[in-house]
Automatic annotation (TrEMBL):
An example Gene Ontology biological process: carbohydrate metabolic process
Keyword ATP-binding assigned: no
Gene Ontology terms for molecular function: metal ion binding
CDD domains: euk_LANCL (cd04794)
Keyword Repressor set for record: no
Species for this entry: Amphiprion percula
Stored Pfam families: LANC_like
Entry protein name: LanC-like protein 3
Length: 445
């Protein structure tokens, strides 16, 4: 446990009451929009903070932050719907994401006195979500990670196991049985391989379970079959579209590059399971990683292949842009230690410091907390306290009048990816930076 100081959080408990409702959730097949039409000429607030000068922010140790985090959790719990008819949205912006947040907070020793209550509340929420996805008639949606059943079953298993319940095997079995759904090469018409609903997401959920439970949920043959389907799908698409690189994918007809629906998270999951790949398959993956690295434009990546970034309106989000793509290159660096991958992550971090105080809210998908997680990633990669300081400054900004007055509104203010549950995860991770990790997006395993 690190004793690093954190940004002042005294006004955190007011944050959730001052975020205004808007932004439609858009149904089960929704995806993270990249439309520029709703934005002004800039997507971010100006970063007026001075950079690191050798000292973290003083006077705010871990214990001081606990009451403010607890107050925010209490406010979230007053807003989260508890009826089975309100469980759409999965882990992304449904109640199940709140259950994951409660699990995450309960795992931090600083919140030990709240652990039992948080886990029991998490179980109540996730039980309703499990009933919802058990009744889902579309088997493809049951296999979805962030928007459907696979993610909900995975989080249910984590919560049950933390409570010491033998029942944790039941959601694990449901999760494991879904591999047959996503193994066929074209199981989803919209795109079978991305993170939210496709095969990369299913592998990502299995990776989270392996990390948190210490057991491999899927057999080697099951993992291999899914990885081979991803690679074959990418090869077929690249050949069909005459790409000058070996693997490419599309989602709803768009060739995304970012973490939410694009190439970077697909490749990240293949690297995470590279021990299951043949030598020839590994070569295809690494060639594609290097291809994507070469698509960098001024420390950022366009949302889709071939696009030119407009500097005044560029996307610097986890979902689209450097804050999400950085995790692929972090994984690449952890595997082979080649400095160009770390250098790419560092450049991404510099861009986030300049343009990561986002106007789209406090969340982790396209908000300030998602930006700040890049600094915690870089701290774990480099050990440089500069990155903790930068994360502290972004946390501090969340509680300013400038942010509250100028940020865009979110519908699911309680949610994990767009709302305050993801923000809480970030604030807890800022208290334990040596264990920090973007929610449900394992790199250090």
């Amino acid at each position: 446990m690190s004793n690093q100081s954190v940004a002042p959080l005294s006004s955190l408990d007011t944050l959730s009451t001052e975020l205004r409702p808007a932004l439609s959730s858009g149904g089960p097949q929704r995806f993270c929009s990249v439309s520029a039409s709703v934005m002004e000429n800039t997507r971010c607030f100006a970063n007026r903070f001075s950079d690191y000068k050798g000292a973290l922010l003083p006077g705010q140790g871990g214990e001081a932050a606990v009451p403010a985090v607890v107050a925010t959790v209490d406010k979230i719990l007053k807003k989260v719907p508890t009826d089975v008819s309100d469980c759409d949205g999965g882990l992304y912006d449904g109640p199940a994401g709140v259950a994951y947040m409660l699990y995450h907070v309960s795992e931090c020793p600083l919140f030990s006195e709240h652990r039992e209550v948080y886990l029991k509340t998490a179980k109540q929420i996730i039980d309703v979500s499990v009933r919802y996805v058990d009744a889902e008639p579309d088997k493809n949606m049951r296999a979805a990670f962030l928007l459907g059943g696979a993610g909900i079953y995975a989080v249910a298993a984590l919560i049950y196991k933390s409570l010491g319940l033998a029942d944790f095997v039941k959601p694990l079995t449901k999760f494991r049985n879904l591999w047959e759904v996503c193994a066929p090469i074209n199981f989803l018409e919209c795109g079978s391989d991305e993170l939210f609903v496709g095969r990369a997401g299913y592998l990502c959920a299995a990776l989270v379970l392996k990390q948190k439970l210490g057991i491999e949920i899927l057999s080697k043959d099951q993992i291999k079959s899914i990885c081979q389907a991803i690679i074959e799908s990418g090869k077929q698409y690249a050949r069909r579209k005459r790409k000058p690189f070996p693997l490419m994918y599309s989602y709803y007809g768009t060739e995304y590059l970012g973490a939410a629906h694009g190439l970077s998270s697909v490749l990240q999951m293949l690297l995470s399971y590279q021990d299951m790949l043949s030598g020839a398959e590994k070569d295809l993956v690494w060639q594609s990683v290097d291809f994507l690295m070469n698509q960098e434009q001024n420390c950022n990546w366009p949302a889709e292949l071939g696009a030119i970034i407009e500097r005044e309106n560029e996307l610097v989000h986890w979902c689209h842009g450097a804050p999400g793509v950085a995790y692929l290159f972090a994984k690449a660096y952890l595997i082979n230690k080649k400095p160009q991958y770390l250098d790419t992550c560092i450049r991404s971090g510099e861009l986030v410091w300049q343009k990561g105080l986002l106007k789209k809210g406090p969340g982790i998908c396209h908000g300030v907390a998602g930006s700040a997680y890049v600094f915690l990633l870089l701290y774990r990669l480099t050990g440089n306290s500069k990155y903790i300081y930068r994360a502290q400054r972004f946390a501090e900004f969340l509680f300013t009048e400038e942010f509250k007055a100028g940020s865009h509104s979110v519908t699911s203010v309680y949610s994990l990816f767009e709302g305050l549950s993801g923000t809480v995860c970030f604030l807890v991770d800022l208290l334990q930076p040596d264990q920090s990790e973007f929610p449900l997006f394992s790199v250090f395993v």
